[in-house]
């Protein structure tokens, strides 16, 4: 999700962290896994692999919870005021429908399956996801330039101690790096910079958990 949309070409939807939480609660994780992955996959909780020593075992995955998600959206002011089946909200004096473009790449057929199932899940809550298939190289060029609302993708990890700079430091958003979503603030940047100076894994763990 684009955490820092321009509010013009890309509507101000996902810059609200509570909206992002509601979206997460609308994703039918188990259903996606069973239908597309035959139940083989496990959910990723946080940015560290569960196979690494600094994985935080206290983290709890946000569950699918349709009622809680729709209730939260209503509390945030997202309601279907014109009866068209799509939630809307007045943002800076203009009615903004909860409608966005969901990009996915065409390199593998399962990405289309994911996109269709997500579109259907969001629609039940009055959210309109307009699917946009793209060649992988085109999609990645767009996301590096922050030209997206939401996209589907995956990231692989190595067995080495985690360096969060590439994916999560705000510098990597400013310079069109791999922090595609615009995650982060001064506090998270300071933690990331501190981790880069600590070689001892045991000493890294508390900072990694933060």
Strand tally is 5
The major β-sheet equals: 3 strands, parallel
Structural class: alpha/beta
Q: Looking across the biggest beta sheet, what order are the strands in?
A: 4-3-5
Shape: globular
Radius of gyration: 18 Å
Order of secondary-structure elements: HHHEEEHEHEHHHH
Helix content: 25-40%
**What is the CA-CA span between the terminal residues?**
22 Å
Tally of DSSP helical segments = 9
> What fraction of residues sit in β-strands?
5-15%
Q: Could you name the ranges where pLDDT drops below 50 across 5 or more consecutive residues?
A: none
- Overall mean pLDDT: 95
Descriptive notes:
The protein is globular and about 60 Å long. Strand 1 and strand 2 form a beta hairpin. Helix 1 packs antiparallel against helix 3. The chain has 9 helices and 5 strands. The chain has helices at 17-25, 29-37, 66-75, 109-123, 136-144, 165-168, 171-174, 186-195, 201-209, and strands spanning 88-91, 94-97, 99-105, 128-134, 150-151. By secondary structure, the protein is α/β, with parallel strands linked by helices.
